[in-house]
Amino acid sequence: MDFSLRIYQQLLETLQAQGYQFLTFEQYCMLGLSDREAQGPNEIASPTKYIILRHDVDLKAENSVETAKIEHSLGIKASYYFRVVPDSDKPDCIKAIVDLGHEIGYHYEDMSLCGGNPEKAVAHFTEKLAYFRTYYPVKTICMHGAPTSKYDSKDIWQFASYKNDFGLIGEPYFDVDFSDLFYLTDTGRRWDGYKVSVRDKIPTYQDIWTANNWVYKHTDDIIRACKDGSLPNRIMITTHPQRWTDNKAQQIKEMLVQNLKNTVKYWLIKLRK
Q1: What confidence tens digit (pLDDT) does each residue in 127-150 have?
Q2: Where do the H-state alpha helices sit in the chain?
Q3: Which domain holds residue 192?
Q4: Considering its fold, how many domains does the chain have in total?
Q5: Which residues contact 184 (CB under 8 A, 6 or more apart)?
């Protein structure tokens, strides 16, 4: 079945073999790769063919430790974003991932957790960011889509500045140049899940990517595109490690539950239009 740890490792090894360099989102921001005009001709430290590897730890934090171990064995560093719900916020897992050399950040959803109250949301964000900074000097954050919530996590930044107020340097939905970088996510347990995603998608550029035939459903499709050279040179890959496992029972359960979620999200999108 797709979304096994074996296939995940094969994907990473294939990308490495084709010359892709892996970056954390923190590294991407610090290199200034989202600001092409600011990059001079002597920007020798900036790669031209790279993958920003990001993981949203929504549930089953133990699964993230397994993907982190695979990456570490290949000399790859990735970014892991943790929620504050119990199935994500597991101290032993967070510590293990930091010890393996990866970046961690806050997968924030404070507007939803605080019922849309901006003052409470900013205070909650402040508290939880400080908490995650006890594990790692967090420099980047990423919103949690929360598809069943009527509140958009990103709306908190109408009432505060994550850069000026919190010393953060990046949020993927604000600080990635998607005109120059392709986005792949396993949302919906499929790589073309933008069709049933409420918020984890880039609608401005998706039509362009589709026109270029950069549409993949299975991990094997990405591996083939990588091998034949048709995959774009600059990509952000986002996974949800909860669905990556070699445990057959977990795979089947995740597939059945996700298929049900995809149906619900499809109708949520329809109703909100």
Answers
A1: 999 999 999 999 999 999 877 788
A2: 5-17, 25-31, 61-73, 91-99, 110-113, 118-132, 172-175, 203-211, 219-228, 248-272
A3: 5-272
A4: 1
A5: 191, 216, 222, 235, 236, 237, 238
pTM: 0.90
Closest CA to 142 of 159, 160, 157: 157
Residue-wise pLDDT for 197-222, tens only, equals 556 678 789 989 999 999 999 999 99
Q: Which two tokens stand for residue 212?
A: 């270029």
Which residue shows structure tokens 């360099």?
A: 21
> What's the CATH number where 244 sits?
3.20.20
**Residue 260 has which token pair?**
């049900």
pLDDT 10s digits, 52-80: 999 999 999 999 999 999 999 999 999 99
Alpha-carbon span 235 to 177, nearest angstrom: 11
**Cα gap 25→236, rounded to integer Å:** 9
